[in-house]
Design brief:
The structure is a single chain. The chain is α/β, with parallel strands linked by helices. It has two domains: 179 residues, Rossmann fold, CATH 3.40.50; 73 residues, no CATH class. Helix content is 29%, strand content 23%. The protein is built from seven helices and eleven strands. Strands 7-8-9-4-10-11 form a six-stranded mixed sheet, sandwiched between helices. The chain has a five-stranded antiparallel sheet with strand order 1-3-2-5-6, with helices on one face. Helix 5 links the parallel strand 8 and strand 9. Helix 3 packs across helix 4. It is globular and about 55 Å long. It starts with a strand and ends with a helix. The structure holds adenosine-5'-triphosphate.
Amino acid sequence: MIDVGQKANHQAFNTQHSTLTIQNLVAGYEQRVLLRNLFLCVPEPTFVAIIGHNGCGKTTLFRALTGQIPYQGAVWVAGQDLRGVRRPAATGLLAHLPQRGAVGFPIAVRELVVMGRFRHHGFLSAYRPADYALAEQALARVGAAHLAHRDFTELSGGEQQLVWLAQLALQDARLYLLDEPTQQLDVYYRRRVFDLLQSWVTDQHKIILCITHDLDNLATLPGYILNLSRPQPRLQVLSAAVVQAERAFLESEESLAVK
Ligand SMILES: Nc1ncnc2c1ncn2[C@@H]1O[C@H](COP(=O)(O)OP(=O)(O)OP(=O)(O)O)[C@@H](O)[C@H]1O
């Protein structure tokens, strides 16, 4: 079962059969509510592209889901109330790629990627050759095998983005939250990253919520789109026509007046 909408229709959905349920979520900052009674109910696996104007509240949604800001309403992932889970990443419930990940010290790329295995690993024990083999496979999947022995801090922004994606792949979470994973990537790697995300859905049965401004790459993907600039955001099945309609809406003057 899959739908998104506002408070009024939430009772029509059975949250038990969905792997991600967001119910009546209200979130924002101080005097400014950006998300009002958001309702979203998706099964596993699913790809959802989250679009909308700059500042409409896309990252704010992820901040709420990752416990960085308070919210009203409820969020369940795989039957667990997210508010009651102290460290959702440590339990494998969710993995998050923020817009900007920074590392303040020199570190080899493969050492950073292998840390994606932290959940399968003893606190003080060293990563094993099998962990490094997985790290190198993950780098190869994003087209960055050649970076394995480079210092992460010396890579370009786009190369760093690929490395974060490889690390994320190793986390093996139920729900992935990706905030603009293709920003700074060239046309080839943008396409490649969307193909990779699609494989996480089809082969590994993940739920992916992916914030993006990269509408060109969405039209041919199986999945859904959620436009948070709409007055009442709802999931729509991705297609060339739907992407075109959402683009036309975002390009219109009246869309800026909505929020
Ligand atoms: N800590 C904060 N306190 C007050 N306002 C904030 C705070 N963080 C973000 N905002 C504001 O909330 C609004 C939504 O921010 P958010 O980062 O969710 O936007 P977004 O939809 O992800 O935009 P973009 O596409 O530019 O990344 C913006 O106007 C931003 O200035």
